[in-house]
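Schema walkthrough. Field components (list of strings):
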Amino acid sequence: MRYAMAMDTKKCVGCSDCVVACQTENNVPHGFCRDWIVENVDGVYPNLELEIRSERCNHCDNTPCVRTCPTGASHVIEGGIVKVTHAECIGCGACIQACPYDARYFHPDGYVDKCTFCDHRVAKGQDTACVSVCPTKCLYFGDLEDENSPVSKVLKNRKWKVNAPEAGTKPQLYFLI
Amino acid sequence: MKKTSRRDFIKISALGAGGLAMANPIMNWVPGFLPKEHKPIDESKAKRFPTFCEVCFWKCAGFTYLNEDGKIQKIIGNDKDPHSNGRFCPRGTGGVGMYYDNDRLKQPLKRVVENGKSTFKPISWDEALDYIADKMKGIAKAHGPESMALLYHASSGSYFKHLMKAYGSKNIAKPSYAQCLGPREAGFVATYGAGVSSPEPTDVKNTKCLVLIGNHVGENMHNGYVQEVSDAIDRGASIITVDPRFSTIASKSKFWLPIKPATDMALLLSWIHVLIYEGLFDEKYVKQYTFGFDELKVHVKNFTPEWAYTKTDIKPEQIRNSAYEMAKASPAVIVHPGRHTTWYGDDTQRTRAIAILNALLGSYGKKGGWYFAEKKKVPHYPSPAYPHPHWTWKDITRPTYKSAGTGISNDLIKASLPNDKSEHKIKGWLVVGTNLISTVPDQKITLEAIQNLELMVVVDTMPMEITGYADIVLPECTYLERYDDIRSSQNRFPNIALRMPAAEPRWESKPGWWMARELALRLGLEDYFKWKNVEEQLDWKFKQMGTSLKEMQKIGVKTFEKDKDMYLAEGEEYYFNTDTGKIELYSLDLEAKGYDPMPKYTEHKQPEEGFYRLIYGRAPMHTFGRTANNPNLTDLMDENKLWVNPKVAKLLYLEPDQEVWLKNQDGVISKFPIKVRITERIRYDSVYMVHGFGKDNTKLKRSYGKGASDSDLITNVKIDPIMGGTGMRENFVEILMDNPHKEEARS
Amino acid sequence: MKEELFASGRNIPFIDPVLHIWHWQIPLYLFVGGLAAGLIFFASYFYLKGDEEKYPIAVKVAPFLAPIVIIIGLIALLIDLRHPAYFWQLYTTIRIESPMSWGAWTLGAIMPLSMLWPLSYIKDLQAYFDNRLCKMPFKLISWIIKMINRYWFINWIYDWSIKLRKPIAIINLVLAIILGVYTGILLSAFNARPLWNTSLLGPLFLVSGISTGAAAIMWMAKEHHEKLAFSKIDLILVGVELFFIVHMFMGFLASTAVQQEAAQLFLGGEFTAVFWGLFVGAGLILPAILEIMELFHFKIPIAIPAFLILLGGLVFRFIMVDAGQITRYLY
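Field assembly_structure (string):
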């Protein structure tokens, strides 16, 4: 099993519903976010291009964060989901330094937090909170090893890219372009 | 001795706020060595209550989930609801913030004068309601019940409407008519005999081409609409956006026409010209269903794309190519009239042009175009007939704005001004869930009217600016804490939704239905509110419709069978509710009322040198001022920024995020500064900001002073002569780098 | 014109607008780690070479600083932890791929050994501090000797520390090199921070650490020949450091766009003055010149170059930690 997420930049309007839904689902404290929207504008009026991306932890295949964790608090569970065991995290911040996507942050309670691909929902066969709520249905989630999962189907038919592939982390968040 | 104004603005400060601020469970710290961690809830086991959202007018139905501590945790869409299809928008999902906002109004407040200063004193509900009832009886005796007006926008307005009609006044208005969608309703009524209404019956998910005139879907987060646009994009539909700003949807469009502001009519007329003169219109449809084609053809003879280019800055090939794109998709094409259509004063005519385009493309009543929506009629709980008022809003409004479909709030406000000549005077306002200060442009008229009232009651959940002017402020609980009247909106299938509380009202706030009923009892109108509690009323209504309160509490939304067809069958006979029974390309109704029967082009003012047109819009994470203080949503956006073109920034030596003040053509200066966003997405002759910020009440801790308020700067109002709409886009601003308020204080 | 912005209002404390989660505690600890590594390295090396009497301060006296500065470093680290109640989790597992885990275990190992070494030379320490201006260390050391004579188990530890000097020195030599190198590898393992993503950082921090150790010994030395010897060692180390620094920048500029951007922080950016002026200028080149002048028999008070090298080492680590967090791949 290899969970991955794809988001369609052609449909995303940057409404940030994914951000709020994640907050209310996962009790993310105010002022912090596990996912976010990036807006890229290029060109000169009126020849312009706009790309909107919904980003989060990429749950990489080659995780620099898990490698650098001194206590093993950052670990990978079944399906490739990267998680942090709060009671093992000492709050040293090495994983935050190691992440090229700035996906991690210090929770006010002290441990390091980030997107967990809503593993508590995935375990019950549901989609992640952000995928379930997105009004434009531009987020796709599923098992890459299952060719019938929403994410596999959409990656087969569309051009896609990932963030900072040169970092060598093999990120599993795909942007359909 | 200086006479203090009767109603000077009282900033609602911390007045013995009853009870401690309720701790936000998300940040709940259990005392001890380690903080208690909140696990995500299990949806299959958690308690949930159906509701429909109050954050905007779309009223998506969903379920409010409670966590293990019994507190509201999250809100998720109801799968069966055609408004949301199970997915809430960011504001709906963030609706929990409305409940947890500790800046909410907590108790009834009464304006008193202490030591020469006006302040608010917390009072009991009995005292507040007794006072209001006394005053209303006094107004009825001295001037007649017609002199009480109801200005509302909240859902609970329906109970207050019932109260007002029972009391004897039909002077009821929603500011959203004249400030927002009024022109398009009048434009479509004049053409098709029926307005557009909400949600718009546009068959976007089946369309092949969507044409947007200024409509910034995606930044306006009309849930079902955005969902259908996404479906349309999936199906390869093309989008044509006409907008001076590179909006989000413009970036997803096949054609973006970066039009010069205030010239849209020229573009629309030239499109009509191209469709007619290049034979691209739907001949069969036009022949069977429309009236006035020949007059229209003559009328648009000279409105060529070349002529339009001189007005709009859009090249003739682009105008033609976009017209071809529309025609190619016919009849599955929608020329969307938008929603906020009060721009320059000729707005009804502009939406008329849009309606005409749809007719020429043969899309009205066709799949992928406009469907015939249906609405389930909600039965009226048995009550005596309403008394017949001696005069209504029609007597004030209709003589001037002959096509006004409902009461116009601006006219009711104007009728409250000190004016000896008029016999129709408004002496008291009941303002429910609308912040007139930010909503109605040209604030000085509103403020002057307020000074002349004998009674001003404001019902609201938050201490918005309008509450600072009230005699009595009544705190309403949020939609998550109350029942409300049944939602029945038009859609592809008739459907109804229930709103029920998921929590007890916080502090001493109460639901709107309770307030209306209590006032009715005090006014001797018990017969109109015979039900003892609202569950009784709702259950009766549901039973009439074939369900029950108990069933609705489980399912939340119920859909019904359609009575009529959604689309016109090929060649089907259809009677439109116009004078001719057909779609009037040439409007006899408007002609009879003395207006132009076909849209004409009017040149509007362009900014002078050094001035920039003030354009405003929405952000998808906010519903204007209503959510500006919501903690979940201020996390996403807590202030607006001024979009300035890099050429302008270079000219004025502006840096990114520099704070500037704005001064409009009438010399009004923005109270608060606004940060600059230097972006290519806006034209060099305009500046853009999101509406709803720059809040002026210190009690709104998260939004006070954040960003600037565009409503303060909208003082030049272009009134639409047909239905009284208030065009707000002809205001121009200068950008000031130094704080003008400091300089004034110094001098 | 290009714009890239967060459209959802993301502004996470210490992460946005630039990463800044490691403050003064980490550079202080890195400095202290390098200093301790240098002190222990020289002590072990010269002991094993048999130069115990030739360089008495290096072998017998200076190493007392090591456990003291290591404890200061460990306290700084503990303060830096955001979830300190669980710090003991570091010692429930060894993660070979995590430089921080190596560091935790290396420190854990070197801590007791670095205490045993000066303990074995406690009498020499007493003699060293006897005729010094500050009486405090002398009093403290006399107290420790009293404890040794009073309690049998402390006496037993003291005896064994003397007997085991050779094995301890061998282990210490290895651990000292690991400690010195790991402070650099810790940073260079984070390839998400382009400024740190250079394999030269490990050796550079090692050499810098050893040179601060040499500077400390130089400062404490009593006899002229010892001062001179370490002065010469320092000179060579400074030369190696300058060599590494030049090649590090050549590497950045020949590398990918993010690395070039990172290098710009030091070639015209906000860190240019403090890096080249304070660290390279005052912390490396100036003491080198002073030491060369010393070789040509100019009278230079030894404190000046020693202090400058120590200061330079501290400043270098502060700069690297701060600047490194600013560099990034995205946004």
